[in-house]
Amino acid sequence: MSIKWEGVMPAVTTQFTANDELDLELFKVNIKAQLDAGVHGIVLGGTLGEASTLTDDERRILTRETVAFVKGKVPVLMNIAEQTTKAAINLAKTAEEDGAKGLMMLPPMRYKASDAEVVEYFKAVANSTSLPIMIYNNPVDYKIEVTLDMFAELLKTCPNIQAVKESTRDTTNITRIKNRFGDRLAIMTGVDTLALESLILGADGWVAGLVDAFPAETVAIYELQKAGRIKEAIAIYRWFMPLLELDINPKLVQYIKLASAYTKIGSEYVRAPRLVLEGEERKTIIKIIEDGLKTRPTLPAYKKM
């Protein structure tokens, strides 16, 4: 089983009702907007999906509903962010049963594992499933870095480890990965504010956040730079930057959900302990969103280039 690791893959939000239940109807509104914009995959259960607050049943429902809704147009991936190897293996199993075509995987959560422990964790899960895997490397937020030497060990024995979501925030890492592994390890940039730079440097795609509110603009940047229309991509990217900066804050879920409510493809309901924004912080974020909407660019033709 394989995935074409390229293009824009939204780390989609999980939509909730005011009563803290899954809002599958609004969830599908957002997924449809992503598909209409031309995304290349869907990632469920990431940070933006509020994975740590979801029950096992809810994750399975989201996977099945998404797989049924996209009807094979793009691959559906489930994120694994677990505390134990046993739980991670079980989630990989149920994700595959429910129709996911790939996995995104973080190192073990909460415990600051050693390099050897992290490698063994990834190996155990990879060897338990036939699904292709993208390792999410985000030492800034999750305090564990998957080094190039660790990747080298994993790639020797785990053919289904195929990609990295590169979120170290060091763009020179893209060149290091390409120099060392060539096409063996695809690179999906995972930081919205470094996305265009990363793509130009050789990243294969973009696991995006603000795409949840602005799907067309996100895909346009990817497609334009791929077609060599760099100036057009830069113009959109410069307009987008104040909004993209909402992705690099501990409250990125609240910020991006509020933006998606303004673009009418999501709501701002979050699951506790998160709370909807209030006071001056809310006013600040609303101003950023409204300023962006006032100057929202008319996009050039970007599909099927």
From TrEMBL:
<keyword id="KW-0456">Lyase</keyword>
<dbReference type="Pfam" id="PF00701">
    <property type="entry name" value="DHDPS"/>
</dbReference>
<comment type="similarity">
    <text>Belongs to the DapA family.</text>
</comment>
<dbReference type="InterPro" id="IPR013785">
    <property type="entry name" value="Aldolase_TIM"/>
</dbReference>
<dbReference type="GO" id="GO:0047448">
    <property type="term" value="F:5-dehydro-4-deoxyglucarate dehydratase activity"/>
</dbReference>
<dbReference type="InterPro" id="IPR002220">
    <property type="entry name" value="DapA-like"/>
</dbReference>
<protein>
    <submittedName>
        <fullName>Dihydrodipicolinate synthase family protein</fullName>
        <ecNumber>4.1.3.3</ecNumber>
        <ecNumber>4.2.1.41</ecNumber>
        <ecNumber>4.3.3.7</ecNumber>
    </submittedName>
</protein>
<dbReference type="GO" id="GO:0008840">
    <property type="term" value="F:4-hydroxy-tetrahydrodipicolinate synthase activity"/>
</dbReference>
<dbReference type="GO" id="GO:0008747">
    <property type="term" value="F:N-acetylneuraminate lyase activity"/>
</dbReference>
